[in-house]
Amino acid sequence: MKRLGPIHGAALRVAMSVPRGVPRRRTAYPRMPSTVHVVRGCFVALLLSVCLTFALFLPGVVARPAIHAGDVAQSTILAPSDFSFVDTVATVARRAQAAAGVQTQYRTSTEAQVQSESVLTAILSAIPELQKQVLNKGRHGDQATTLIRLSQGAVSQKLAQQLLGLSAQQLARVQNLALNALQLTSRQPLPPSQVPILPGVSPFPVTVPPGLERDLAGQLYAAFLKPNRIADSTQTLKAQQAAVAAVAPVEVTYRHNQVIVRLGDVVTAGELTALQAAGLANSGTSWQELAACFLISIVAAGLLHGYLISIQSPILVRPRRLILLNTLLLSTVTAAVFTLQGHGLLPFIFPSATLSMLLAVLLNAEVSVVATAAWAVLAGWLVGGSFEIATYYLVTGVTSALLVRSVRRSSDFFVAGFSAAGAGFVTILAFKLLHQGYDWLGLSTYTVGVLVSGGLAAALTIGGLSGLGRLFGVTTG
Asked: Could you say which DSSP state residue 10 is in?
């Protein structure tokens, strides 16, 4: 028989000890679980589900208050996993910019120009009669006012008096020049924005000599020029709608552990949209999240106790060992809930292999592997549905559980812990290569993290074996 090496606290020798001279009391347990034991196992599974639900749900209520746009971030928030979403704020901004860039649409309408030319013809036709009144009464003021009124304010006082002073031949030439210029201009598109510009350009042929007649015709042309293109709100709206429809939704992608908002920054509308897409904006008080935590807890507890029931495990007939199994799983999840809130490197430093090694030594490796699988499911859920984290915990846990099945010395725990760390690093490297992450400095950080995790797991296992063995009546050697 091989000689056992020293283990701290005599953890592997005897898990339960009694003073000398006092006879040990051993409880006789049936070898196979009965129906009563199976029902008890189901009840314990349900109780574990409730405890896990509160362990997963309640910290979110305290540690994750609702976030609103304009709030100051109380911590740096990282993306829990890779995710993409449609940024409605950026999409609305781009579509508004596209709509604002659409030029006003116009439609042709000559009504205003025709009416303006009619008014011009009417006032020029009225001038001879007004000139007769001037000769009779000898006053230009009243007739000029009448002329201004007939032009609907288009003719100034000075222009009216100048027109009244023209001869019949001069008046005919002025009328001819003004009307011809207006009709020539109306044949081309003339939006309202160009009306103030055109009078600055001579509308008359170069053969017309400069002088009073040309000057007065130019003033009339400027006064009675109207746009023949008017804004069409219906067509403009259609053009804006077409421009908005052509803008594709803005899709934003965040990578695992990418910063969404930094500590002390004011949360913008865009960052709030990202937080909502990641499920980090609202507090953990919704009934949907409570129900989700309960369902995933049912899955994990059902996986563990369903295995015990399916193989008719003797653990079902030993209440203290059943309590040990559930207590270790619940304790690990509770510790992770309060430790892994910041994400980042913490999930890879967390000594989750402690659970696997303790169960492998105190109970058996098979139960330890199943419990590790249940823990991996809960851990992946806890850090935002990360498949990488779930795989990492499953690989390190199973590796450590298999390596401590026949442990003889305390150093064997460290060998198992560091071996599990190596398997975990290979898992991390595989995911980094999958996502094309070639940050060697970052990989060195992960290397230190997994080695610390393996060493902590081994130390915690050695420290916990003796106390747990005595407390729950489990003999390890």
From this structure: G
Tell me what pLDDT residue 137 has: 60
* Residue 280: per-residue pLDDT: 74
Whole-structure pTM value: 0.55
End-to-end CA distance of the chain: 13
β-strands 259-261, 251-254 pairing:
unpaired
Buried b (16+ CB within 10 A) or exposed e, 397-436: bbbbbbbbeebeebebbbbbbbbbbbbbbebbeebbeeee
pLDDT of residue 440: 62
Is 189 exposed, middle or buried, given 0-12, 13-18 or 19+ CB atoms closer than 10 A?
Answer: exposed
Measured over the CA atoms of residue 421, residue 422, residue 426 and residue 429, the dihedral's sign is positive
Task: Name the β-bridge partners of 72.
Answer: 266
Residue ranges for the chain with pLDDT beneath 50: 1-28
3-state helix, strand, coil in the chain (%, to 5): 65, 5, 30
Name 338's Cβ contacts closer than 8 Å, sequence gap at least 6. 59
